[in-house]
Design goal:
The longest helix has 25 residues. A six-stranded mixed sheet has the order 2-1-6-5-4-3. A hairpin with a 4-residue loop joins strand 3 and strand 4. It has one domain: Nuclear Transport Factor 2, Chain: A (Roll), CATH 3.10.450. It is an alpha+beta fold.
Amino acid sequence: MKTTTQQHESLDALSKKGTCIEFFSAYQDMDLNRMLSLCDENGIISFVPLGDPFKGKIHEVGKGLWSAIMDSFPNLDNTVKSQQFDEATNTVTCKVVIFGTQAKEFAGMVSKGKDFDSEHIFIFRFNEAGKVTDLKISWDHEGFVRQLTGV
């Protein structure tokens, strides 16, 4: 039988996992405002393979990159493969496949109408209010570029 503390922790983990699923649902709907509403205004994002220029506030750096990718890939979609809550770090790690067909220039890559299909790791950290305060995103960027450029 679970103790009251264990039940609270389970509800907390479920709530945070639910926020992550809502984030990816909004991403599927290309609803940037809904994605951002789940994040603290001062939350920090890091698109790890892209380095320091792509680290900053979620509502600025994240919004800019997501807006560009949504514009360039009109059929952008994702599938959440797994989620894991880590109580010690107050994080949810999600393995997500993101895919779509490039229709416009993106990040200096001219559109060749090619598809990409790329596994991403999203690590969400939360504040007491249940908002995302830190988001780290990793993927095989070289593989992503290869899929779109053929090089």
